[in-house]
Amino acid sequence: MKSKIWSRITWILWVLLIIALPITTFPLVMKLTRSSSVAPASLLFLLPLVIFALPGIVRTKSPLPVHAKPVLLFFVYALITILLEFLRPISDYKEQCLTGAAVEGAATLILGLLFYFVSVSVPNTPGKINSTLRIVNWTGMVVVCWSILQMVVQPFLPNVFLFFEQIQAFFSPNRILQDRMLGFAAEPSWLAHMLNLVFLAYWLAASFTGSSVHKWRFRKITFENILLVMGVIVVVGTLSRGGLLAFMLVVFLIFILLNVRLINWLVNRFFGRKRVFLITGVSIGLIIAYLGLLLAGLWGLSKVDPRMETVFEFSKGEPNALMEYAEDLQFGERVVYWQTGWNIFNDHPLIGVGVGISGFYFPQYLPDTGWGLTEARRLLYRSSGLLNIKNLWSRLLAETGIIGFALFISFLVLFGITSVEMIRKGMGMRKTLGYMGIFFLVALIAEEFSVDSFALPYLWFSMGLVTAAWRCYTPAEGEANG
């Protein structure tokens, strides 16, 4: 009886954590953690969930998946880089001290590890994974509906919009924007981030394979199909360039997969020289079509997003043409921060400068072009906080060196291999979750160019859930998971 109650509480906490995922900066968590940006509401349920889940895992002696080894190795190594930084002569900077930055860096690492740990461990049966996906769907439906209503209500029902703003104030420190969808996130880019890494990754996979965790269907239309359409509307409505790029990369991959199916069909249907000419013609035509779609998409974005008005204007005559182009597109500051991370890595290539410590090195390694940017100067001189690299890939190199970067990439490679195995040798939801893992990885490449926090749960949640599916769903004959 006690064990059943314990398991029930664990599952309730897991459900609450999923429901809280869309809230990226919860005022209550901001007060508890004293964080002004990354304060996801799911943290309220994470620590109690770990407390309740750990005894059950120890009692059942459940083995950790093979993915856990590089994950644990990376996190332990990252924590060591923080400790090693105390051996270097670093003075306090602004109102920040090395000890405080080290504690914050260690805390974000531990939170990321715990998010992955519970996402792998709690949904430990096919039934629990299916239930988890159903909760993800209903949570995602609330997110996309709320995001769309924010834009629809503003011009037509101003009094209702005032009520919406009061509701929003309970979930986010930022007000609803007039020209970009925000959902329950603190920034539109974070809304796009969670959509690409969690919700759209699954909805695209389910739609691609024609599967669903719900019994309801209208002819061949599933609940995931409807959510996918609404999710696409919202990710476009965020006008997040990183989010749109991530989504387009996944769509491009899906087109490639469909084209492979088409070419395989042509190979089986036609023979000889006719087959060669036909396949070559189809391939060239598809490449031209994709380039046309890309240009059309950029042109359309330039008409709705003022930041993209000069996307087709590139001057080779400028001394630093690439930086000028980036500044014209209003992401010159981001490029400067990325370059700062690269400069730090160049001088500390082996083990980096420690997770959370790179901000102390910004004045020394900021590129010359950075000193001419208004945002960079304002953050350097008028902000009391440390600057951050705003790019996970550059941050990994700068703060953990080539060793930490290699450990993290090895985990992603292993995750990708097992996701492909789920696709090749699986059926039903196992295949669907395999595609979710691949779509997630492709989106991750672009998304992490604009996000660098280990504490946001979306990265760890999706990888943990797909890893759990790899372990729990019935494998193909002769294949074992562990």
**Would you tell me the structural class of the helices and strands?**
mainly alpha
Strand order of the largest sheet: 1-2
Report the biggest beta sheet as strand number plus sense, adding barrel if it closes. 2 strands, antiparallel
Oligomer: single chain
Helical region count? Answer: 18
Radius of gyration (Å): 23 Å
Order of helices and strands: HHHHHHHHEEHHHHHHHHHH
Low-pLDDT segments, ≥5 res: 476-482
Total beta strand runs? 2
- Average pLDDT, rounded to a whole number, is 82
Shape: globular
Can you give the helix content as a percent range? 55-70%
Distance between the termini: 29 Å
Strand content: under 5%
Task: Give an overview in words.
The protein is mainly α. 70% of the residues lie in helices and 1% in strands. The model is unreliable at 476-482 (pLDDT under 50).
Task: Give me a quick take on this structure.
With 482 residues, the protein is an all-alpha fold. The chain has helices spanning 2-20, 27-33, 43-60, 68-85, 98-121, 126-156, 158-171, 188-209, 223-237, 241-269, 272-304, 321-328, 332-347, 362-365, 374-381, 392-425, 428-447, 458-472; strands spanning 217-218, 221-222. It contains 18 helices and two strands.
List the helices and strands and how they pair.
Elements: H1 2-20, H2 27-33, H3 43-60, H4 68-85, H5 98-121, H6 126-156, H7 158-171, H8 188-209, E1 217-218, E2 221-222, H9 223-237, H10 241-269, H11 272-304, H12 321-328, H13 332-347, H14 362-365, H15 374-381, H16 392-425, H17 428-447, H18 458-472
Helix pairs in contact: 1-3, 3-5, 4-5, 4-16, 5-18, 6-7, 6-8, 6-9, 8-9, 8-10, 8-17, 8-18, 10-11, 10-17, 12-13, 13-16, 16-17, 16-18, 17-18
